[in-house]
TrEMBL record:
Matches recorded under InterPro entries: Ig-like_fold
Keywords, ordered alphabetically: Carboxypeptidase, Hydrolase, Protease, Signal
UniProt keyword annotation of Protease present: yes
GO MF annotation, one: carboxypeptidase activity
Protein name, as recorded: Carboxypeptidase regulatory-like domain-containing protein
Secretion signal, residue range per the UniProt entry: 1-20
Length: 107
């Protein structure tokens, strides 16, 4: 068999880098570190990427999860109802875990 055939076979059997990863996190109250439930978390890709926006709600411990997110830059937003509480540009890579600390107003 030719050398070219073996190189082609080797390239085809190498594992491909993961194109998607989980993006997980938790929203907590800054002082008490208690999770905040029932917040809407949005992950918004750049318009040029042509990918859909994702949204989820925090659980009773403030946790959220976006499974199989394409790697790249996103705008991460957290809302309580229609009120924006937090916004940040994030970079998703292999397995991203984000903790968001929010402080209560008037304290």
């Amino acid at each position: 068999m030719s050398r070219c055939f073996f190189l082609t076979l080797l390239i085809l059997t190498l594992p491909l880098p993961a194109l998607a990863a989980d993006f997980n996190g938790r929203v907590v109250e800054e002082r008490s570190r208690e999770g905040i439930s029932d917040l809407t978390v949005r992950l918004i890709p750049p318009k040029a990427a042509g990918r859909p926006e994702k949204a989820t709600t925090t659980d009773e411990r403030g946790g959220f999860r976006f499974p199989d997110i394409e790697r790249g830059r996103y705008l991460l937003e957290v809302y309580q109802g229609t009120t924006l509480l937090y916004r940040e540009v994030v970079e998703t890579d292999q397995e991203t875990v984000k903790e968001i600390q929010l402080s209560r107003k008037g304290r």
